[in-house]
Amino acid sequence: MQPKPNARLSSQAMAFVLAGGRGSRLKELTDFRAKPAVYFGGKTRIIDFALSNALNSGIRKMAIATQYKAHSLIRHIQRGWGFFRAERNEYLDVLPASQRMDEVNWYRGTADAIAQNIDIIDSYGINYVVVLAGDHIYKMDYEVMLQQHVNSKADVTIGCLTVPRAEASAFGVMAVDDTLRITQFLEKPKDPPGMPGDPTHALASMGIYVFDWKFLRALLIEDMNNPNSTHDFGFDLIPAIVKGGKAMAHKFSDSCVKSGLETEPYWRDVGTIDAFWQANIDLTDFVPKLDIYDSSWPIWTYAEIVPPAKFIHDEDGRRGQAISSLVSGDCIVSGSEVRNSLLFTGVRTHSYSALEYVVALPYVTVNRNASLKNCVIDRGVIIPDGLVVGEDPEEDAKWFRRTETGIVLVTQTMLDARAAKLG
């Protein structure tokens, strides 16, 4: 397929979303779901951000590679993203690791996940591939990145965050020249290189790559036949292109989508309990750093048909109220106080209970006289009468998962074990 000079580049591109990660740092939150399927922001899942960015950017061909604990992710995609129509030349394919190439290998790495699906990508008739991680929270117009890629005639263009040098050691870091051509790709360096003209900051990889499909296709076939390769973009393909080809950095600040309320580029890896809790709680701020109310760049998701939230009882000590909080549909706040918290769909809080800095995932029930603070409650958990979480660190750690900063994760399995022990 020849590039169309007058068409938006996004119409000639596909998004390939890597959504197979274990997400092990989220502990029990990923016991039954892949990290991209973890809930976020009241009604969405983490993967909805990458998919929405692609859709809003004008990309209408997408593929999602899944591997670990993929059922809830696949079900979410089927229910919430089933509006693509083949007759309009739109496609969204879910590509589980299914030993398509042979009967031995599942996806062996990020590059292999694409390599095993070359025939499917060929069938899309596209010129460009935007490779995305399915587990980050951000808003970005990929059309801007595609334009830079084509204009610079790069072999690969890599999306990069501008981060303080002191924090860059946690990332893959780019050393670049004045034209943003990448001269070195360093995985978690102890002494990260600064940016030209700004030595206090470094460019860190977002795990977003743009390739010409013809170039990437040849590279993947070569990599598949290399017995010494780990078949990973960050470890194998990108360093090879930096060394022998033309790799360009794309600054996230050039393509991030901001409403009038957002003052700086927003990107979060919610890969730990602390980061997950913080990013959700941040949404309750008076002016949050991420504007999820921006109708010009909607975050698409599976929209359940549920009744509005409801607040009942109005007497001293038993008033249903929520202050500086996000309360989703089908929630009933009954005679309880909710402060600085985020309640997902279908949460029930009963009389005399108090929630402060709580992230309650869908269909949580908080029974009477419970006091919850600084915690994440997994989907469907039933909090027993009078349970206190967030006041006694030793008691919290005895029954639940408590992080070093004092955030407590509560699951039904933990509560059942506690109940069995206490008799």
From TrEMBL:
Annotated ranges, domain Nucleotidyl transferase: 15-284
GO function terms (MF aspect): ATP binding; glucose-1-phosphate adenylyltransferase activity
Gene: glgC
Matching CDD domains: ADP_Glucose_PP, LbH_G1P_AT_C
Organism: Stagnihabitans tardus
Site positions for Could play a key role in the communication between the regulatory and the substrate sites: Q67, W106
Summary of subunit composition and partner proteins: Homotetramer.
InterPro entries on file: ADP-Glc_PPase, ADP_Glu_pyroP_CS, GlgC_bac, GlmU/GlgC-like_hexapep, NTP_transferase_dom, Nucleotide-diphossugar_trans, Trimer_LpxA-like_sf
Pfam families the record matches: Hexapep_GlmU (PF24894), NTP_transferase (PF00483)
Taxonomy of the source species: Bacteria, Pseudomonadati, Pseudomonadota, Alphaproteobacteria, Rhodobacterales
Name of the protein in its database record: Glucose-1-phosphate adenylyltransferase
